[in-house]
């Protein structure tokens, strides 16, 4: 697997979101960019916090769970802790929510707007151990761009 050029992805993401203030347009374009740019992923999308739970937002991939409670699954845990979670093997993660049975590893990155938790960026892969420290750093950098 080739290393992802996160500098290039950051430039592309910045070009897509500059001047745009609609969260649906921003996250839809970023989900498409990530899904089509990252190798070996089967889901790239966003969940936003609404009424105390995560609600599915724009994404690319197979159909997904719509509602996720805080503390449930990788997304709910990352949301509750407001920190990135990298799971090399989702089948070993207590409480994993299997929206797509083909997923084997996952990374979830919190997204903040105006200093407050907004939601998460969720990326799944059919490959075990898909996400590295470089992916975490790169995706956290992209998440910081979204509402800044």
TrEMBL record:
Coiled coil: none annotated. Residues 34-146 form the GAF domain. Belongs to the free Met sulfoxide reductase family. This is GAF domain-containing protein.
